[in-house]
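Onboarding guide, step 5: your first structure request.
Type a short instruction followed by the sequence, for example:

Predict the 3D structure of this protein.
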Amino acid sequence: MSTSAQRLLEACAFPRAGETVALAVSGGPDSLGLLLLALEAGLSVSVHHVDHHARPASSDDAKAVRAICEGLGVSCVVHDVVVEPGANFEARARAERRRVLPGGSLTGHTMDDLAETVLLNMLRGAGIDGLSPMVNDPTKPLRGVRRHDLHEFVDASNVKALHDETNDDLTFRRNRVRHQLLPLMCDVAERDVVPLLARQADVLYEERAWLDELSVADAELDLNDADCRTLREWSRARLRRWLRVKLRAVDATNDTHPPSAAEVERAMEVVVGDVVATQLSGARRLARRGQHLTLEVGSTTLTSNG
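The system replies with structure tokens like these:
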């Protein structure tokens, strides 16, 4: 094993040698680095490549990934999906990948991806969960690895990585964060802010885990069973956190999202009795009848809010 591979593996969070893993490999340097390091770590690997047919070269990419896997003696499965161009392309493509990939597939997200996600979530408006993404996620074993170190490792190998030109397209917000915002932040801070954002995410994740421990009993309390007289005795922070969990919604791409800050504030007004009902995203309506809450979609009352 090379010195560079050993150094990178020390920063990885792979399963134990000999375990079987599925890898999501696009053919770019991040996912190829994931593949090469997984083999160095002694894992039994199967590769899964998703062809979105969103680019003219996508079929060539699938062939290239197959060839790379053949050269490495690794099995490769290509999943064909179609994602139409248009709004929310990234989210819809992510949903399709999630649909076809085996559960628990490992991805090549690095510390730089973690930092970008923190900033993206911050720009959307996020609580403690959104500011501590990927931490302790077993499907992200490279979250402690820097992107430039991973690319240097791949460049030094006998495997040629593919280039996805959409990663340079500044119409995508993540690319603007990557190519414009992060470099500007590093310039203003006069330091590399990626490790700083990663450490912040680690700290927030630990505090989030501690809050979860403190609120086990709260989490077990269903929305329909709660008595507003009891809820009104809670601190605002405690009630806000409980409502963010109980009012989560699933969008069209099957992603789960907490309610916005404005929705939580309106829901708190229902709890304290300032209003009797409020509208929420997803055509939902939170109402108080007597001292109990109901969550409705259209004319249907939702009874499971765990």
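Each response can be followed by summary notes, for example: DSSP finds twelve helices and nine strands in the chain.
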